[in-house]
Design a protein that fits this description.
Elements (H helix, E strand, L loop, with lengths): L1 E7 L2 H4 L7 H10 L4 E5 L14 E5 L7 H5 L2 H8 L2 H8 L3 H18 L3 E5 L17 H15 L9 E4 L11 H9 L5 E6 H5 L8 H14 L7 E6 L5 H10 L9 H11 L11 H7 L3 E4 L6 H14 L4
Parallel strand pairs: 1-2, 1-8, 2-3, 3-4, 4-5, 5-6, 6-7, 7-8
């Protein structure tokens, strides 16, 4: 098992976390006995900073609300984005142009030396996220993904598996094993699952503490049956946001207009909290799944916060 952390080349990470210091990154990895990073490439890649030797996984780009564009639902697109120029700025001029840009992201996996790539399977309009009343269901999202994924994976070397990551929006939530199986069976390329523990906890608003979250994760994994053998990686973190989610749902009971991008991002971060596990019970998850890649996934406020969260979770796992 390789032990990784998530990191992008966005300035919020390279400057905000690391102060532009590659040495600081190397020292951080060594001090925490990490094998490297799961990388998200948000701009031109500087291989002298995020070196191929440290990159083990590549997290692909993600558009939260994309299915209206794919289906050509112009009315919904105007409600979501406001203008055709904004739609084109987000996706390009056509579905083909959108897929072409995504193909370049897939190609980066081989360039970076990644051993796997991570793909989000989800769809949610901004107007829907707080009320959780969605225009599309999980079956429709997975059906749409299977319409294009096999074209995208043609850009991916055969020995780099595509790992589908669960979210709490319609798509692959892992709560419907038959849909996860349909997704895997419909993918021609080598593929598997990336279990995001925090995202899975976000599907259950009744969780009150870490132990309940761990028990819930293990219950869902058990219901996957033989599909659990396809979990090759874990994004490890916890999220106990059920009370907040329910408060927001009651405050915003129907789809809403004009939610700003900043307001949306703040809401998502309040739901998906990326907090470290702190009790030894978390070892049960790792022992049950035996992942090839274990990613400590956090959204730290600063470098000290990153160190503190990683240290807490590693100690819970008895890694040092």
């Amino acid at each position: 098992m390789l032990q990784l952390v998530n990191l992008s080349n966005d300035p919020t990470d390279t400057e905000g976390l690391l102060g532009g210091s590659q040495e600081r990154l190397q020292n951080f990895l060594q001090a925490h006995h990490l094998d490297g990073i799961e990388f998200m490439c948000c701009g031109p890649w500087d291989r002298s900073f995020h070196t191929p030797e440290m990159i083990h996984g590549l997290h692909l780009w993600f558009w939260p609300s994309w299915l209206d564009f794919w289906r050509g639902n112009e009315e919904a697109l105007m409600e979501e984005y406001g203008s055709l120029s904004t739609v084109e700025a987000v996706f390009g001029t056509s579905p083909e142009a959108w897929l072409n840009s995504w193909q370049r992201n897939f190609q980066q996996a081989a360039e970076c030396g990644a051993e796997y790539v991570v793909f989000h399977v989800a769809q949610a309009r901004s107007s829907e996220v707080r009320c959780r009343q969605f225009a599309y269901n999980s079956a429709q999202v997975i059906e749409a993904v299977l319409e294009f994924i096999n074209n995208l994976t043609l850009c991916l070397p055969e020995d780099i598996p595509l790992l589908y990551e669960n979210l709490w929006w319609p798509g692959m939530t892992l709560l419907e094993p038959e849909l996860a199986r349909e997704l895997l069976m419909g993918t021609n390329h080598a593929c598997g699952l990336m279990l995001d523990t925090g995202h899975l906890m976000n599907t259950n608003v009744h969780l009150q503490n870490e132990q309940q979250g761990i028990d819930y994760i293990l219950q869902v994994v058990a219901k996957l049956g033989d599909l659990s053998d396809k979990i090759y990686g874990i994004h490890l973190h916890q999220s106990l946001s059920g009370r907040f989610t329910e408060e927001q749902r009651q405050r915003h009971p129907v789809p809403e207009d004009n939610i700003s991008s900043g307001e949306l991002m703040n809401y998502v971060l309040d739901v998906d909290r990326h907090q470290p596990f702190g009790t030894g019970a978390v070892k049960k998850i790792v022992a049950e799944i035996k992942p090839q890649w274990l990613v400590h996934e956090f959204v730290p406020k600063n470098f000290a916060d990153w160190q503190a969260k990683l240290t807490k979770q590693q100690r819970a796992l008895s890694f040092y």
